Amino acid sequence: MTTLRVGARTSPLARTQADWVAARIEARGVPCEFVGVVTTGDVDQRALTQIGGTGLFVGAVRSGLVRRTIDVAVHSLKDLPTGAEPGLRIAAMPEREDVRDVLVGSTLDALGDGARVGTGSPRRAVQLQAWAHRQGIDLQVVPVRGNVDTRIGHVGSGALDATVLAAAGLRRLGRLVAEGPDGRCRVVSAGEGGTPEDGVVAQLVPTDVLLPAAGQGALAVEVAEDNELPELSAVDALDDPATRARVTAERTFLARLEAGCLAPVGVLASLHASPPSGTGDSQAQDLTLDAVIGRTIGSDVAHPAVPELLQVSLTGAVSQARQLGTELAEQALSRLGHDLRR
Ligand SMILES: NCc1[nH]cc(CCC(=O)O)c1CC(=O)O
C-alpha cells in the first residue's frame, strides 16, 4: 500500500483542511502524510488587489502534483482559478462547509455611522456599502489583509470596529463558537475555550446581505491525470455530487463573466426539491443561482463611487448546472452593457 502525499499551503487553515481530507482518505484504508508547500501568496504581504492575478496560492501546490512531490493537493475552491489546469483534475469536491461570511468585532445592528470595517475583498466591500446605504448609515470600508489573527488584532487594538472573514475557515479551525439567535456567535483564539464569555463578538451574515464568493466553504482535492496509483480511488470517493453541482454552476458563472476571485461578484447556488411536475419524479432537484455584481470595478475598495449592485437569479434542473451558470452570466452581461469586461 502506497502512502499518499497530501500537499497544501502551510497556513493553519490550509493544514487543517489537508488533515481533514487526509483523515477521510485514511478512513477508506489508505495511509497519508502531509507535505507543506510555501506559495507566493504567503510570502508577499502587499494587498492582494495589487499583486493581482488569480491562482496566487495554488501555483506552487499544483507544481508539486506535476513534479510528483505530492500525490494529492488540497485547495480552498474559492482560491482556485476557474480555468481548467492541463494535466490535472479535481478528483473530489467534498461536502461543503458553511458558505456564509462572518462579521467579527461587532454585530450588524451595532455598526453605526462611521464604523470602520476591514476587508480587502471588493465583493465584501461593495455588498457592505450597499447594505449600509439601505440602512441609512455611512460605513468606512478599510482595505486590510492578513491571516485571521492579524485581522482580529486590528479589532482588538481599536483600529477597526469589525472585519469580515469566511465562516468556513473559522469553523474548520474550531474558532467559531457559542452560536445563538440571528447568527450571533463568538470567535475564540486558537486553543481557547468555547464559553460565551470568551473571544470576540461576531455574527454570521445572512446571504441576502453578503453573497459569498464562488466556491466559498468548499475544497478542491486535485490530482495529476497521469498518476495511476490505485490508492487514488479513495480520493475520488470523497466527491459530494451536490457540492460539485453547486460549485460548478457558481464557477461557470464567474468564468463566463471573465471575473476572477477579486471581482466584486457574489454568487451562490442552492439545491431544493423541484415543484411537483406531475411526472412522478419525486427525486428531482432544482438548483437556484443567485448573484450580485458590484458596478464599481476598478474603483478604490475603500471608497466605491456608488454602492450599486446588479442582482440576478435563475432556477433550473441540477443536471444543467453549467448551462445555468452561463445563462445567468449572459443575462448579467447584457444588463451591465458588458462594462464588467473592461
Ligand atoms: N481568500 C482567502 C481564503 N480562501 C479561503 C478562505 C476560507 C475558507 C473558504 O472560504 O472556503 C479564505 C479566508 C477568508 O476569506 O476569510
Shape: globular
Structural class: alpha/beta
Beta percentage is 15-25%
Helix content: 25-40%
How many discrete structural domains?
3
Cofactor: dipyrromethane
Function: Tetrapolymerization of the monopyrrole PBG into the hydroxymethylbilane pre-uroporphyrinogen in several discrete steps.
Family: Belongs to the HMBS family.
Domain Porphobilinogen deaminase N-terminal: 4-228
Describe this structure in words.
This is Hydroxymethylbilane synthase. Its cofactor is dipyrromethane. With 342 residues, the protein is α/β, with parallel strands linked by helices. The chain has 3 domains: 4-94 and 218-239, D-Maltodextrin-Binding Protein, domain 2; 101-204, 3-Layer(aba) Sandwich (D-Maltodextrin-Binding Protein, domain 2); 245-336, Porphobilinogen deaminase, C-terminal domain (Double Stranded RNA Binding Domain, 2-Layer Sandwich), CATH 3.30.160.40. The chain has 10 helices and 15 strands. Strands 7-6-8-5-11-10-9 form a 7-stranded mixed beta sheet, with helices on both faces. Strand 6, helix 5 and strand 7 form a beta-alpha-beta unit. Helix 9 (241-256) packs parallel to helix 10. The radius of gyration is 20 Å and the shape is globular. The chain starts with a strand and ends in a 6-residue tail after the last helix. It binds the ligand NCc1[nH]cc(CCC(=O)O)c1CC(=O)O. Ligand PBG is lined by residues 76, 78-79, 165-166, 168-169, 216-217.
